[in-house]
Task: structure prediction
Amino acid sequence: MSLDNAVLTTDNCRYCLMCRHVCPVGHVTRLETLTPHGWGLLISSVQRGLATWTDSAVDKLYSCADCGTCQSHCVTDQPLPAAIAEARADVAAAGLAPAHVVALNQTIERWGNPYREQEPEAVSGTGDVALFVGDEALYLWPDGLQAALSLLRAAGIDPVLIGAGRNSGYIPSSLGFPETARRLAAANLADLQASQATMLLTLNPGDAYVFGTLYSERLGIDFPANVELKEVTALLAERLAAGDLKLRRGAGGPPYAYIDPAHTSRMAGRDAAPRQLLAAVMPAPGRELFWRRERTHPAGSTSLRFANPMIAEHLTYARLGDARAAGAQVLICEDAGTLNVLASLAPRFGLTIQGLYELLAEQLEGTQGN
Result:
């Protein structure tokens, strides 16, 4: 998307309030400037010469969570998140991006991820199925990665691991550094080509969105047409239904809720598979949160955790409060980033955080259950 196209989008959004009620940042800040139409009005005003990129204006621009909830609730499918990312790129190119965001991009340029000073792992071997590991699963919630691999192998799939320790490209794209994002995308797709896989699995909906949509929409990079893109939860649910994955039902426990990960609203229909898997191992149905499925609000695990940590933390507080209000004592998710931020604050709410993949792996037939 060029900046001219971004401005066309923001012109359409600046006085429209139809998605305002679903914006998570607007909910936790209660500031009209930090809502979709507020960001649209800000960007279009700068382009008209009615405002400038002052420190205050830049701070507001970098307060969007880039979660996609606004676009998923737009009847005309306005790509406002991509337009905001393009405006950030314009700000960064002018040398006006926040210093901590610039420093973060430099870290990602050097190491391929923002979490550890360690280069991505090389691809080893080839196969029909590849699994994109990324950086969060490897560095923030490694037990979930190992459990997912155990589940896949129990279902007869031994994937080639690609992109281990490398960001998908979402973070730099979101924060206004598309060239960094393109380099990461090129490296991830080179790994995919080296694996010779015809199916790419992702551990969460965020990575599925990046490969399936963000690369083409924001970076002008096409995902290989001969490769099927699928989430691990969807594949496991299919194998479970076919009888190729055997799970046993667990014993009773405290009330639980499944929390849809960040970017769920961008992936229509993906919310059914994890619930089907939970229904196979849990003795009773879970509680449902208010902000769920197509209206999912993210915890503070999006790019916002780097751009505006305070607002990101309040998004996490809000998700934990949602769980407590639903009567849940255990909160379950498969996304490493979401699990990481929830676990950091869950004790304040008296909640336990449980990885979905670990929970399912414990209930594999032939393993020792709890």
